[in-house]
Amino acid sequence: MKSFPADMTMQAVAAENNLAETAFLVRDGDDYRLRWFTPAVEVPLCGHATLASAAVVMERLEPARNRVVFQTASGPLTVSRANGNYVMNFPARPSDGVAVPAGLAEALGVVPVEVFVNAFNYMAVLDSPRIVRELSPDMAAIARIDRPGVIVTAPGDGEYDFVSRYFAPAKGIPEDPVTGAGHCMLSPYWAKRLGKTAFTAFQASRRGGKVICRVAGDRIELEGTCVFYLEGEVEF
Fold first, then answer.
1. Residues belonging to the active site
2. Whole-prediction pTM value?
3. Which residues lie closer than 8 Å to 64 by C-beta, 6 or more apart?
4. Where do the DSSP E strands lie in the chain?
5. pLDDT tens sequence across 117-158
6. Which of 111, 135, 188, 220 is most buried, judged by most C-beta within 10 A?
7. How many whole angstroms separate alpha carbon 190 and alpha carbon 212?
């Protein structure tokens, strides 16, 4: 595409795809402009759709490239090849501790040990990875919380430093399979708690996903892989 379709068209395509996010990219000089839509709304940052966009650029559109910069609502986002993986450089999303907000414990079905908040999400810290994995929240109640989404997290077990899940029914995503933007909030918290800057994390959705995270000042590096499973054309 030489320019983005109309917003209503991109939103309609995302609703038809019915995936957590659909990415749209347009060439802009040596860079690309990138936007993301859930089935219900446009969002300011998305990890896995950026990863997929980078793979499309570096594997299909420009196979000689090892690095691409996307111009986005969250500023320039760089993605680079690294040992068969892709490394995304995103802005950190620090958060502040708050009292458990009204309705959150009831919506989750468990009382958090701690709760943190920023402009984008609440983050509820739970006792154990087992509780995170077994959680069955009330999605209608989560949608009424005064943030677009709720992250739940706990210390990891085995090979993982921490585990998480992400619920965003207000954005048309009852549970996101793997959330790069969520790890921009998770990583600064776990860096302070664990006293280190590099982590192996696991998002314990039904699909599940491993995320390698690194804190670099006010930026977060997220490393992962991408697999092509479908190619085609959209008519609109």
1. 21
2. 0.94
3. none
4. 22-28, 31-37, 42-43, 67-72, 75-82, 85-91, 96-98, 114-117, 121-125, 149-155, 162-167, 198-203, 209-216, 219-224
5. 999 999 999 999 999 999 999 999 999 999 999 999 999 988
6. 220
7. 13
